[in-house]
Amino acid sequence: MPSKDGDRTAARSVDGAIVAEVRDAAALRKAVGSAGRKVDVSGQEIRIQGERATWIGDGVAALGTEAAVRAVIAATADGADLAGNARFTAALQQVRTTDPAGVAWVDLQQAPAINAAFATIGEHVAGGKSGSKAGAKALARRSKLLEDLPKGLREQAEKQLGTGALGRSSSRSLSLSSLRLPARDATAALALELRPGRLVVRSGGTAAEPGTDPKVASDAVAALPAGSWAAFGGGTAGLLAKGSPAAGALNQVAALLGAQLPDGLAKALQGVEVVSGGVQGENLLAAGGAVVLRAGDDDGAKTLLDQLGSVLGSIGGKNAGAAGFSAKPTKIPGTTSGLVVGLSGLPIQLAAGVQGDRLAVGLGADSVTKALADGDRFSGDPLYKRATTALDGLAPSLVLQPAPLTDLLNTLGPVLGGILNGGSGGGGIADLLGGSAGGSGGGSGIAGLLGGMAGGSAPKAGGSATGGAAGGLFGSAGLGRVVGALGRIKLVTAGREATGASTWRGTLVVEYDAAKRAAGTSTTPTAPTPSAKP
After folding, report:
1. Are residues 354 and 463 in the same domain?
2. Cα separation of 489 and 403, whole Å?
3. For residue range 64-98, what is the model confidence (pLDDT) as tens digits?
4. Contact call for residues 58 and 25 (beta carbons, < 8 A)
5. Tens digit of pLDDT for each residue in 303-340?
6. Residue 191 covered by a domain
7. Are the C-beta atoms of residues 305 and 337 closer than 8 Å to each other?
8. Helix, strand or coil, per DSSP, at residue 376
9. Do 41 and 25 form a contact (C-beta atoms < 8 A)?
10. How many domains are there within the chain?
11. How far apart, in whole angstroms, are the C-alpha atoms of residue 3 and residue 1?
C-alpha cells in the first residue's frame, strides 16, 4: 500500500504483510509470546515491535507493517478475499496443478507497489535505513572493502559502477532498489509442487497486449545443434530497446572493456527478435557452443556482424601490445560472411558469422558452423525428447543437463584452486588483487570480500586468510559445494505456451537425485521434503 505520489515517494512509505492460514491459533500465540506493545484493532489484539506488527486471529495470522496488518484485519472482517478477484482467478485458471505446496500471484497493474516493496527490501539488504546504527555499520564495512581494493581496480569500479559499487551513495549502484517493473495490464500466478526427486513450478497468466509468441523461443531451441547439454531461447520484444536495463548492462560491459557501444550497434541490437544458445562438448578440449541472434531480415544480421567487428577492432586497437582483441574477416563454412576474434596471449578464439537473418557468435569457427549450417538438430536429440516428456509434452525453451558441467568443474577444480588461491604459500590471483588468499599473510582485500560473499569470513589484518578463501566460493570447499549440488541435479527444463489471445501457461521442472549425499559431509543441500498439504 504505497503512497500515490510515484515510485520514489512510494519506496519510502510501502506497507506489506505476510498472511497465513492458522490451524491452531492458541499454540501459535503461545509460541510467538506477548512481546511488544499491545494495540486493539476492532476488538483484535496486535503486537507491535519497532516497525513490525503481528496479529494472530482464530483462523488467520499476519506479520508486517502496522498499516498492512490493520488492512488484513479489516479485510478478514468484511469477508473479502482473492476468491472474488476476477484477475486472480483468471490467472490461476491457467495454472495446471494438483496438491501444490504453495501458490503465488502478482498483478502488474500494481507495479508501483511492487517496485516500492523491492526498494524497501533493497534498503534492508543494504544495511537498513540511513541513519540507523545497523545501516551505518553496513555502509562502513562496504566502504572499507572498497578502499582495500588495489587503486587501479578501485578507480575502475568507481568509474564504471559509480561510487556506490560497494555501498556508497550512488544512483547507479546495482541493488533491488534499482528494479523497476513496468505497470501493465497483466497478471501471473505460480504454483510449487514438491515430490521426492522432482520440483515443479507451474505458471500461467493473462496479458491485455500479447508479447512475443512463446513458440519462437521453443522453435529456436529445437533448431540448435544436436549434442547440446545446455540450450535456451527467448523472444526479445523490447528487451534491447534504448534505455532498457539490458541495453544499460551492455553499455556497462563495453565500458569495462574500454570501449563505447556505438549507436549503430545499439540500433542493430534493437532489431533482434530472438536469441538462443547451446553448449556442447563433454570436456574442456571438446567444448563448443554459440549464441544465435535472429534479426528482422538479412540486412539486419549483416549490420550486426559489421558493427560487432568494428567494436572489437576498436578494443584491440586501444589495447595494442596488451591483451586486446583482434578481429579479422574470415570465411567460415556455413556462413555468407564471418570474422574470427583472437585474444592476445590466450589459445581461445571467438568467431561470428551470418547466414540469412541469423548471426551466430561462438567458441571457434566450428561452433558457428554447427549453429548455422545444415546438420543434426537438437529436436532429434534424446535430451530434447527427455525434456519434452518432463514438461508433459510442452516444447522446451530451456534445457540443462549439468553432468558435463560438473565433470568439467571436477577436472578444473585443482587448477582453479591453485590459480585463485596460489597454493599453500599464497601468490594466486586473490593475493594479487589485495588479500593473501592462500597463505597466512593476512589482509582484508578482495580475497576477504569474495570469501565473505560466498560463505567464508573476511580475514583480519595480520591473520590467516585461508578461512575466507578456502571457505568461500573460490576455495576448494566452496567449489566442492557447488559441484556437489550440481551433481545431484539430473535435469532442468522449462517451457511456455500461449493458451489464447491473451493467456499463457508455463512449466519449470528440476529433476534431482533425492537419495544422493556428499560422502562423509553435508556440503550439499538436502532434498526438499514434500509438503503433506498445500
Report:
1. no
2. 8
3. 999 999 999 998 888 777 888 899 999 999 999 98
4. yes
5. 999 888 877 766 555 444 444 567 788 999 999 999 99
6. no
7. yes
8. coil
9. no
10. 4
11. 7
